[in-house]
Amino acid sequence: MVVTNFEGAVAVITGGASGIGFATAKALRGKGTHVVLADINSQGLQRAEEQLRQQQPATASAGGILTMVTDVTNEEQVQELMRQASTTFGRIDLVVTSAGIGAGGPIDSFSVSQMQTLMNINFMGTYICTHAALPYMRQQGSGYFVFLSSVAGKLGVPFLSGYCASKWAVRGFASALRAEWYNTGLGITTVYPDWVDTPMVQKEGEVARIMGVQVLLTADQVASEIVQAIADGRPDLTLAPTRDTSLALQLYKEDPGKAEQLMGASFHERIALQYPQTDRARM
């Protein structure tokens, strides 16, 4: 069921202490939505709540705020998050799964533990939140999810094999659920943004430099698009302002094999310009 009236609605937002999660909470609360911010960063959560209250003091039209320190890979903590959200505000209308991490590098040196951590947070965190919220939505007969994937969930990006795998998993999960939930009152928007100016992207300095990353999106821009996509019930929200990304996405639709070849050639040309032959041998 599409959420068209945000006033009085209840949204649970993971990764709510910063980045797209916080920006989405800010945008929704501005429309009168009660927001439940979940994050593993307790200090960040406290700052986020303070900022929200400063930007929009408690009034009749402002939504309520609840914060909970939550590890999205911990099923018990996520179940308690949903229970507290329902107990405090009476229902759960919207769940935004924006908790996520990024990590990159050549597959040769990308460890099993790094890959497992990516999958646990980016994909299993999405699954666990969905599974925990679903009983409340089933009981009320409606509910909506926003899954944060990435353009890396539609492309094969060198040096981001683990990240791509986790975001393609989110994409496939959402697609299967939309079919499973047909005509049930439940819906999903999957969000595929290009590089966004967030703490996660800022940490990927070396990998981002090698890849020639262009950051043209802000978290607030993405949040604004998310709110509109929820109201429209859009299954796919792809935000790709850079010409290269837009062309790559189109080519992947038309000819995935050729797209992989061109992305690989472009990547290795960039490596050749930045690193001597001795270093390239390890990439």
At the first level of CATH, what is the class?
A: Alpha Beta
CA(first)-CA(last) distance = 47 Å
- Radius of gyration (Å): 19 Å
**What is the global morphology?**
globular
Biggest sheet character: 7 strands, parallel
Percent of residues in beta strands:
5-15%
The SSE order reads EHEHEHEHEHEEHHEHEHHH
Overall average pLDDT: 89
Helix-strand makeup class: alpha/beta
The CATH homologous superfamily is named NAD(P)-binding Rossmann-like Domain
Blueprint of the fold:
Blueprint: E1 10-14, H1 19-29, E2 34-39, H2 42-55, E3 65-69, H3 75-89, E4 94-97, H4 112-140, E5 143-148, H5 161-180, E6 186-193, E7 196-197, H6 199-203, H7 205-211, E8 217-218, H8 219-232, E9 236-239, H9 243-254, H10 256-274, H11 277-280
Parallel strand pairs: 1-2, 1-4, 2-3, 4-5, 5-6, 6-9, 7-8
Overview of this protein structure:
This protein has 283 residues and is an alpha/beta fold. The protein has a single domain (10-241), classed as NAD(P)-binding Rossmann-like Domain (Rossmann fold, 3-Layer(aba) Sandwich). Helix content is 53%, strand content 15%. It has eleven helices and nine strands. A seven-stranded parallel beta sheet has the order 3-2-1-4-5-6-9, with helices on both faces. Strands 7-8 form a two-stranded parallel sheet. β4 (94-97), α4 (112-140) and β5 (143-148) form a beta-alpha-beta unit. The longest helix is centred in the middle third of the chain and has 29 residues, at 112-140. It is globular and about 55 Å long.
Q: Brief description of this entry?
A:
By secondary structure, this protein is an alpha/beta fold. It contains 11 helices and 9 strands.
